[in-house]
Design goal:
With 42 residues, the protein is α+β, with helices and mostly antiparallel strands. The chain has one domain (4-34). Helices cover 36% and strands 29% of the residues. The chain has 1 helix and 2 strands. It has a two-stranded parallel ribbon. Helix 1 links the parallel strand 1 (4-9) and strand 2. The longest helix has 15 residues, at 15-29.
Length: 42
């Protein structure tokens, strides 16, 4: 079982989220399971 990757982020104007989405895309292309989690959800 592959480990799941969690990317926890905080953003004001959306730039960090764009970067995290790109990271997620690249990781998923390499068959990684990825969750993006906003710090606001904690």
């Amino acid at each position: 079982m592959e480990p799941k990757i969690g990317i926890i982020y905080s953003t004001v104007d959306g730039q960090t989220l764009k970067i995290c989405n790109k990271l997620k895309e690249v990781l998923q292309q390499n068959n990684q399971e990825v969750d993006l989690i906003s710090i606001d959800d904690f």
